[in-house]
Structure formats: structure tokens, C-alpha cells
Amino acid sequence: MGKLTGFMEFERQAQRERDPIKRIKDWIDYTNPMTESEIQTQGARCMDCGVPTCHSGNEFNGVTSGCPVNHLIPEWNTLVYEGKWKEALDLEHEKNNFPEFTGIACPAPCEGACVLGINEPPVAIRTIERSIIENGFDEGWVVPEIPTERTGKKVAVIGSGPAGLAAAAQLNKAGHTVTVFERDDRVGGLLTYGIPEMKLSYTIVARRAAILEAEGITFVLNTEVGVDVTVNQLENEFDATILCGGAAVQRDLEVEGSELKGIHHAMDFLHANTKSLLDSNHKDGAYLSAENKHVIVIGGGDTGTDCLATAVRHNCKSLTQFDIYDKKGAKRDDMGNPWPQYPIIHRIEYGHKEAAGKFGGDPRAYAVMTKKIVGDSNGNVKEVHTNNVKLTVDENGNRKRVDIPGTEKVWPADLVLIAIGFKGPEQNLLQQMKIETTEKSTVKAEYGKYTTNREGIFAAGDIRRGQSLIVWAINEGREAARECDRYLMGSSVLP
């Protein structure tokens, strides 16, 4: 620790945000950077906790605790406080290839596991993490590191999301020749087309991709393996393959009227918006506009919040987000959600603040279930009918939501966005490659080994574990690279 009494002297200060009313008029980063001295002060709050759990990277009852990439958090907090930014950057990169991604878009389970956070606001770990890497870029310390020797082995990585990029980066460090196949026109997967520009700018993704290219990685864009490149071509050209295609099959809303025009999956809405924005600043009109529309977002998670922030920038007429859960408390439930699990509490995220700034209140409607959707005579969505629900447990311990009588409500709607998660990976390529899958449709590959039923083919990230966090994808991409390297060379020097 840098300052013995820092956690008692200084209050938590996380990344500042621009004024919500002003920022909804543009697509620029919604945050403002903090000064070096402010970040150093936050580093001083890291306490001598004896057994730090912020970097533990565990899961308890399906809830993440600590950092899955095992970031050396107390160490780089101390270095930041001491002004040793280069050393802090080196420690960041030791465990995480892309701290700029996690420093922006990770929900920070590390902070949920912070010992100080048991009875005080936790250390602002994510803010410090982002500041370290951005300072590194500003100082010119983040540069391509080209391997001095090549092994002669060729590896294909399918998918350029965080798992694919991490796997490619590590395999390239080991000296293998790596080709990343991406079916979209830009690198990044859901980093690019699933997270809105004002939250994670494509310039940040492209900046890192340029470094990876300079290090020797080849990106083949607009190319879908199994369609544009055959499985036979892949197997003939490469010594090994890592599947990092994500879990892109979105869940459907199975209610009456869900086929009406004006109802779209959240990722279709976000993808089209970002592509049109990057291609033409929306001048091509090739996106789903929420302008002057009553917008309903079904789903209370981060993707739903990203839809809020996008729709409000389109200048929608009204905006409501349905959350099937009750409004959570301000503090964690010590019985059902004990420390050091990620705290499941009520949060007011950037999109909620922006919607409230424009429309005057929290856009969320809690404990709401969609019962049916009604359209007009032309087949366009017109109304969403809902009930409030409560969670019950029957005599066999089965949990079920039941309607609360008298809570029926009709909501006007011109645009309905479905943000209720993902079912799993697409199956076409997996079937062509004869890859075994689990009952959840994910690739059958053991965590820590990542080997599939096909020799030389590995799987990492959401395609293996299902919908999850960016930081878990990076963890799996790095570890799968190690196992792939071991397969190719007999042993591995990768972590």
C-alpha cells in the first residue's frame, strides 16, 4: 500500500461524467478524464487488507467475485500513488492484454470484492485501471512488441471479440503466425458493434488492433468461416484453430404479437446504429431510428441500458425500460449476496441518468412482465400490454412469477427493443466442424483446458461459457492460447 491511512483520509472518486443533458446531443465519450493527482489520491485508498480479494477471480453460486484475469491490483494502486506510472502499466499488461477495454466496459467485480468495500465505498479500481493505460498511450509507452523468432506454426482464431483478440495476442507472443477471421467489416466483435460509441469508442478498439497488426497478426474481415472460407480450407492451412465466435443468438420474446413490425432485437438495433454512425455519421439512414417514437426496452441489463442511451440520442418521444425483477436495495443482501460476490444492488447507470435528464425520472418499470403486443391495421406495433408480477416458491421449491391482479397496463409503443439476453452460439459452423456441444448449445470444452472433441481445435469465451463478461472472455482467450501453444510445441511459456 502507498499510504497507510489513505483509506481513512480520502473519499472515493470515480470517473466523472459529462452533463447528461449536454452529452445526449453527441456520440462522444460520456465521461471526462480525471487528473493524475486525483488518480494518485484514489490509489492511496487501497488499504493494507492482509489478504486482498479484489484479484481473486472466483465464482460463487454463479456470481463473479474479484478479477477473472487476476489483475495485480494492490501493487499497481501503490505504484500509481507513488507516481510510477510506467511500472503500473507493465503490471497491468502482465495480466490483461486490453486494460483499456475492461477499464471502460467491465462492471468491475474487483470493486465488489474490495475489502474496504465491506463497510466503506470501495477503491475506484476501474477508474485507476483506465487511467493507467490511457496515460501509457499518452506517454508513448504502448508500442508494438514484435516476436524475435517464429515457430513456423499457423493458428486460426475465429472471432475478433475480446476472447479472440486475447488469444491472438498471446499466440503471437509465443511466435506463432496468427490469422483472425471476422465476419463483420471492423475488428472487435461486440466491443465494436454491441457497445455504443459514447461508451466504448471504436477508436479505442482500432488503436489496439493496429498494434496487434504491427506485431504480426493478420485480420481477415468481412469473412465468415463456414461460408466464405470452408472448413476444409481452414484445416488444410492451419495447424490449430481457436473458436471465439461468441454467443450471438439472441433470446426471443415469446408473446402474442411479437412478429409485428417495429419489434427488434437489441443487438440488431445497436449494431445498425454503430455501423451507420461510423460509416456516414448516420447520413446513410441505414439504422433503426427511434426519433419521435414511443420506445419500450424489454430487459433490465446492460444491453437494455445501452439501448436507452442510444434511443435518447435519436430524440425519441418517450422511453421506458421493463425490468422483470423488483427494484433492488441500495445495499447487498448479506445472506443471498454476501461479500465478496459482485453486489447485486440498485444501480443508476449512464443511460438511466440520460433518460431521466430528458424525461424527468427513472425510465425503469420494475417487476413488469410483457403479456402481449398489439399492432395497428398495417401490422405495426402500437401497444405493449403488461402485468406486474411477484416471485413465488411452490411446495417443491420451484420459483415462479405470478401476475398481481389489478396491475394490468397498456403502454404506447412505436419501437420495441428486446434485450433479454442470449441463448448461445450459432450452430452452423459448429455442425460443419462436428464440434460437440452442451445441452445449453455452447461448445463442450473444459475450463482450463479448452480442448474440443476435435484435435487441434479449442474454444474460449462466450462460445464456450455462454453470455458473460468481457474480462472472462479475456481470461479464457489467454488461457486457451496457452493450451493451444502447449498442443503445438509440447510445452508453453505463456501464463
Plain-language structure description:
The chain is of the alpha/beta class and 495 residues long. The chain has three domains: 6-138, Orthogonal Bundle (Fumarate Reductase Iron-sulfur Protein, Chain B, domain 2), CATH 1.10.1060; 154-248 and 423-489, FAD/NAD(P)-binding domain (3-Layer(bba) Sandwich); 252-420, FAD/NAD(P)-binding domain (3-Layer(bba) Sandwich). 33% of the residues lie in helices and 17% in strands. It has 18 helices and 20 strands. The strands form six sheets. A five-stranded parallel sheet has the order 7-6-5-8-20, with helices on both faces. It has a five-stranded parallel sheet with strand order 10-18-11-12-13. β5 (154-158), α9 (162-173) and β6 form a beta-alpha-beta unit. α3 packs across α8 (125-138). The model has no long low-confidence stretch (mean pLDDT 96).
Key features of this structure:
5-stranded parallel β-sheet; alpha/beta; FAD/NAD(P)-binding domain; Fumarate Reductase Iron-sulfur Protein, Chain B, domain 2; 18 helices; 17% strand; 495 residues; 33% helix; 20 strands
Q: Which quaternary structure do these chains form?
A: single chain
Uncertain residue segments:
none
CATH topology of the largest domain: the name is FAD/NAD(P)-binding domain
Classified in CATH, the superfamily of the largest domain is: FAD/NAD(P)-binding domain
Termini separation? 26 Å
